[in-house]
Task: structure prediction
Amino acid sequence: MSAADSDPNAPETDWSDRIGVSRPLVITAARVIVTSPGRNFVTLKIETDQGVYGIGDATLNGRELSVVAYLNEHICPLLIGRDARRIEDTWQLLYRGAYWRRGPVTMRAIAAVDVALWDIKGKALGAPLHELLGGKSRDRVMVYGHANGSDIGETVDAVGRYIDLGYQAIRAQTGVPGLVNAYGVGRGELHYEPADASLPTETVWDTRRYLAHVPKLFERLRDTYGPEPRLLHDGHHRMTPLEAAQLGKSLEPFDLFWLEDVTPAENQEAFRLIRQHTTTPLAVGEVFNTIWDCKDLIQEQLIDYIRATIVGAGGLTHLRRIADFASVWGVRTGCHGATDLSPVTMGTALHFDAWVPNFGIQEYMRHTPETDEVFPHDYRFEAGFMIPGERPGHGVDIDETLAARFPYVPRQLPVARLTDGTMWNW
Ligand code: CS2
Ligand code: MG
Result:
C-alpha cells in the first residue's frame, strides 16, 4: 500500500530543494516507538536540526523490549549532537564502542540507527536508497510467499492459491502426521504469526516422522503443478547434520529452489557434511547478525543463499558488506522477510534487492492491513514480484498517532521438545 493509497492527501515531502548534504545534519532527537498493530514492532525515529527525519526497524520477535532498553539507555543519548550524514562513522562507533560486540540485540539496535540515517541521507538528497547504493540492477524483485496446510492436501491447495496470486516462488510447509503443530503451519491464510503467547507455547517435535513425510509433499506438488514453480522449504533448525543431509538427498528429485535452516548454523562446519551428500540448494542466515556468523559458510561455498537481513545484521551498511563478500563466492542473497520484520525493513530491503548484483530472492510475508496503515509505504506487490519505491530514502513512514493506538503486547516465540521431553530447536 503506498502512502498515497493510505492517504491521498499525504504531503509529497520533497526534501531535495531544502537540505542537501553540504552542511551538517545535527541529530536533535532519537525516539523509540513501540506499537502493536496485530504484532509488536519497535521503530527508531531520528530527527535533525534541518527538519528531516529518518526511521529504522529494531524489532526482535519475542525479545522486543530488550532492544528498546538497549536503544533508550545506551544508544540514543550517544546520537544527540552527532552529524547524521556520518553513517559509517556512527556504525563503527556503535559496533566497536559496544565492546561486547555482535548478538541479536546489539545488531538490531545498530540496524535501526543505520537505516534511519540512510533514510535521512536519501531524503536530504531527494534520492531513493537504491540510487545511493549504485542504482538498480533490476526493476522488480522476485519474492516468495508462504503456503501451508495441516496436511499435504491442504498445502497443495494453498500453493495453488499462491500461484493464482501470481507468485512464481512459494515456500511450502505442512503438518506432520502424529504431531500437533509442525513448524510453519499457520492459522489462517496469509498472516502466520508464530509469537502466539506471553509465555512460550510448548510444542512437540519428531524429526523421524518429519523426514518420512516431507518428500511426499514435494512429490505431490511436482505431480500437481509440474516443474515450473520454484518451491522452497524451511527446516527451521530442526535436524542434526546427518538428518539434514538425508532430507536434502530425499528432496533432490523435486528440484527445490532452496532448503532453509536445515540445522543450527552456529556449527558452520556441519554444512561440510551436508554438502557432501546433497545437491539440494541450501539457504541459511535469518538468525545471523554479522558477517562472522557466515564467513566460513560463504568462503567454503557451503551454502547457496545467505538470508541475513537489514534489521537482523546491523542495517544496510553491514548487509551490503555481507552481500559483497558473498558475491566473491557466488553465494546469492535471500533476505528473510517474515511478518515480524516491519515494513521499514521490507521497504529498505527492496532498495537493497533492486541494487545487489548477486540477488537471489526476497521473502515476502504480507503484513496485516492495520500494520500497513501504521507504516505507509510506496513499495507494491505485482504478479510474484515486488516493486521498490521511488520516494526519497526508503519510502516508509510511521503514523505515530495511529501507532499509539496499538500498545505493546507481551508475546514470545514457542519452544519445541522432542517426544521424550528433550528440549530441542523450535
Ligand atoms: C521463518 C520465520 O520466515 C521464515 O523463514 O523462519 O518466519 C521465523 O519463524 C520468524 O521470523 C521467527 O520470528
Ligand atoms: Mg526461516
Observations:
- The chain has two domains: 3-127, 132-392.
- The pocket of D-mannonic acid (ligand 1) is lined by residues 61, 194, 234, 236, 286, 336, 338, 340, 363, 413 (CB under 6 Å).
- The longest strand covers residues 27-35.
- Confidence is low (pLDDT under 50) at residues 1-11.
